[in-house]
Amino acid sequence: MRELVSKKDANAAWSYFCAHYTAPDCSALDPACLPFIDVPKHKSRLVYTELLSLMTRHWIQQLESLGSPENIASPSPCDVLQAFDRLAISSPSITSSLAFSLAIHLQLAAAKGLDVLHDPTTKPVLVQLIELWPLCFFPRWETKDHKAFQSRCAALVRAPTQKPSGLVISLLLVQDLLCRAKSFPPDLEQYRLHLRALSRTTPFAQFSGAAVRHIEMRLKSESPDDALGSAQLTAKLCNLRSASVLVNVPANATPKDQNRPVAPETVEQKTKRLVAYVSHAADKQNLDNLERLWTEAQDLFADEESRTTDNAPSTLRLYEAFLSAFFQLRRPQSGLQVWNSMLNSGFEPTVRTWNIMMKSCHISRDINIMESMWQQMRNSGLQPDVVSWSTRIYGHLRVGDIREGMSALDEMGREWFASQNKRNPKSAATNITAEIPAPNIAILNTAVSALRGSRAHHIPNVLAWSRSFNIEADVDTYNMLLAVALNGGQAADAASILKRMAASNIEPNSSTFTILVNSMLSTTMLNDLTKMEQEAKIMGLISSFEECGLKVDVQGYALLIDRMLKEHENLAAAQSVLGHMMARGVQCTPHIYTILMTHYFDANPPALFAADALWNDIQKTKGHTLDVIFYDRMVEGFARHGDVGRTMAFLNRMSKEGKRPGWLAMMAVVQCLARNNEWDRVAQIVIDCHKQEGLLSVGLRGKKGQKDFWYYVGKLADNELYDSEHGKEIFAIVEAQREALGM
């Protein structure tokens, strides 16, 4: 679907979405139903925001062309959101972003002289926006009357913040349009009370100087030629009055849905909501939120209704969501707690449940336990699906024993052959054998992926196995084989693979570009060139691939930026690549931000002003998501350069977002505080690390640097901290940690 969205083919993208995204637990949305190699692709949920943006632009274009929403075949923005809601993939950030973009569209129309409340091409957009707002405030099972709406509006516009959300700005922008209106359309009467509630709250908006600057920057970013008059418009938004066209309310006017009875939230609705929130917490790496959701879910799990025949499947799906999320965030003990709770509540594991548990063994690298789970699943009478087989095969080939992995491939093939031999075409009872999954391209790609690197010499055996089942390689297979050949310096093999791709009519994709560029940059191709020549060479390389119909994906851009900075210290070339990426509408990722920040911190002298500027740009970016690696580098970078304030600010930000810092980042924090003689704060950080409280209440991540951290703290305990207020406590903590770590 991402490819269709990137091609801006709205009709095809929506058709694909409707055909493949059919239910909250459909295979397109369920990581447990995806082959192991496709799971990372699923985790990037930005595609839903991009799809909504594409469909909104398409709907508006049709509205401007046809002049009436009744003539439009495409779904409206609210229709798309309702589809997202049914699939439990909607989120406040998606809704807020849409509200902002619709309000900007109306303001731009007003700047062109249109009467947005009456013009047939803008009035439906306003209706969409009005119907959209309650989705930002209320779960769909709550009442949405105008009094509750007014209360939520007031809380939003009066909240102390330096960065008003897109939702808040959309409220202000519409109020400005209402203030300018000369009359109120009769066919919008059903919305009058909601708009009047808005009009009563926005004049009391309270914005700091930073908030005002933020609003102005958001407006400028949506209007590069400043058609909105951002400075003047911002000043108006911060000094709004009530709208005179809303003063008189007809006696018979009632807002849409105001009097409709609303049913209480059902068990199915609760589980849907929690599944969506759990998935969001895992994607954001927010362990704190995830643990709060687990606590919230206990009331639902204790409810007898959750175990009825109708509700049990959705309740089990929630258990599985928690299992997957805790293992994804490397919290195996919490995952086992979920598992035990599920069993104690009387739920039997399904194939999907076992798949999640087996995948967790890849993280712990305990293939014996994975195999034990496989046997338990088989002994329970469950038939493994393709995901089960791919998970088991990947585990053995990547982490365990090659012979066991090849044996698992052969076992799958034998079982399928046996099921085919038992089939009786004349018999009606063929549905039993249909449960035996056939070896397919997903299995082949999983096996090849597992063997990349030091085990690549076993790949021919896997390819030979696949030929027994007439499995045709796809672009992912060829890309992996190409990467293996190039990484091994086998240029002739790589050329042969590209020829086989062409002979099989398989088009290269953006991943092919990344692989080829990685190989090219690993040579001395750029070493003897000036920085300007390097920049020209790289941009020419991108152009040559685009001329061949290949699009550069975000991984390819990240690779180019990384190599330009780390190997050639060519910031100008990296910025050109970044500019090209942004011009192509490719979203910047946390990985790219991390590459740039690392370069700024490592520069001599450090480019801290550039780091600040980039951080400001990141904060202005719509829907930006940052990972723990990025935050670790920010903490380490500012700590290394002695900036205690910003070091602690980013550590505090991690804590608030439920993200766990690594031990190397905490080492940098303690060293920074020690260099600045902040001994009380050093002691508090050490205590928080030991007890996992305060700023470290969500714990720390991994083991790398853990022993070095406690060794360094031990030196402080023996010297600078010896006579301090917390000296004895720190010494006892260090001794306990040394014993636990075998130091």
TrEMBL record:
UniProt KW keywords: Repeat
PPR repeat coordinates: 315-349, 350-384, 474-508, 627-661
A Pfam entry, by short name: PPR
Domain of life: Eukaryota
Keyword Repeat found: yes
Tagged with keyword Cell membrane: no
Protein name: Pentacotripeptide-repeat region of PRORP domain-containing protein
